[in-house]
Amino acid sequence: MSLAHTTVFLWAWGSLQAFEIVEKENIFQKTPCPAFLMFDNAAYLADMSFELPCHCKPEEVLAVVWYYQKHLGSSHTKVLTDFDGRVLTEATQVRVGSDVLARFSIRMFSLLVFRAQPEDSGLYFCGTRKGDYFYAYDVDIQSSEGMVATFQDKGQEPFADEYHGSLSVFTTFWEWTPCDRCGVRGEQWRIGLCYLQSPDLSPRYHKTQPDVVSCGSRAVPRKLRTMVRDHRPELLVRSCVVPCEKRKSIREGVLAIFNYVSKVGSRPWLPQVPIQFYQQRLGHSLVVSCPGARPEHAVAWDKDHQHLYRTQYLKGINRSMRLFIDHGNQLHIRFTQLDDRGIYYCWRQGVRVAGFRLGVASQGRYRASFSDPETRFAVQRTLLGYLLITAVFVTIHLYRCCCYLCHFCPYFSP
């Protein structure tokens, strides 16, 4: 009886799953495509990853191809497809600055773009290999350069809305992130992107609210783009305190029992999170990312027992900082010094998840190359110095020649 009941149960479960899949496919296939192609507006911050679902397609189409155009009607169109044996892209394999052709993936008819850059802004079409379009997006990737940080603990307020006749420019903020630390004072923030409202927008673009689109949308006429060029994305930061989850206290209790059972004097050091060891040469730069973190996640950094709060270490607050956190949650150490040695811990969504022990070596042979940022920086500064000296030298001699030809040079008697 037990075997029979198990067989019937498995058959019923499989039938139920098949029924659910068929129902989902039928719902997807019955979704009507618009008779006139419209564009859904979507805005993201640079270095974020986003997904564009293909909401409709004909029933006979079994695979979709995505197309990209910088401007509507452009003769240059990029074809984004996984055909011909293309390997699916993973987020961990993506490098900053690479072309969109190396940073996308198509999964279940949806287009995934990893670490988007402002150059990826444009129009994305879902269609077939023959060039038939079913659904389209108007994507606006706003740069984080010049991003304005506002700290509520200091009494600062976001920028006020701007009004230019019938045009209004404002910031639309996302939801607050979770507290980036637990058990101690942490921080949480929300990202604000530039949006505008105007009756002069193109009617071919979908709008979540009447006459409202992101500032970089293709629906914005060229004459209005110059008026919103100076409105930058904003970052709103405030303090927070949340308790840690119970499972963490249980783990600490287990470690305490283990330490008690261990022999006195021979107790090993047990890190609570995975620790990676890294050796860096003196005077060179280092950029560290938190494992599994994305720019929209709540990420925090600690050095040993020192909390690196964004109020003091956010990029752009002080140009002379050697150690700072950028808007993509990465930790930067410029021109490494001996006192930078220590353990740097990374928090993700309020939980400490990883750390790395940094060692600084003052000796060792190093082969310079132009692929090294420090080498490029040194060459640029050297060339800039030579150009400055040459400009001063030429300017002095031109002045003396003019004085000699025009006979107006001042005469100084010894």
Explain what you see:
With about 425 residues, the chain is of the alpha+beta class. Among the domains are: about 100 residues, Immunoglobulins (Immunoglobulin-like); about 90 residues, no CATH class; about 90 residues, Immunoglobulins (Immunoglobulin-like), CATH 2.60.40.10. Helices cover about 20% and strands about 30% of the residues. The strands form 5 sheets. A 6-stranded mixed sheet has the order 4-3-7-8-1-13, with no helix packed on it. The radius of gyration is 29 Å and the shape is globular. It holds the Pfam family V-set. Its main location: membrane. Keywords: Glycoprotein, Membrane, Signal, Transmembrane, Transmembrane helix. It is found in: Membrane. This is Ig-like V-type domain-containing protein FAM187A.
**CATH secondary-structure class of one domain:** Mainly Beta
Indicate the CATH architecture of one domain.
Sandwich
The fold-level CATH name of one domain is: Immunoglobulin-like
Rg, nearest Å: 29 Å
Residue windows where pLDDT falls under 50 for at least 5 positions? 6-10, 15-28, 84-95
Membrane topology: Single-pass type I membrane protein
Protein name: Ig-like V-type domain-containing protein FAM187A
Family: Belongs to the FAM187 family.
Subcellular location: Membrane
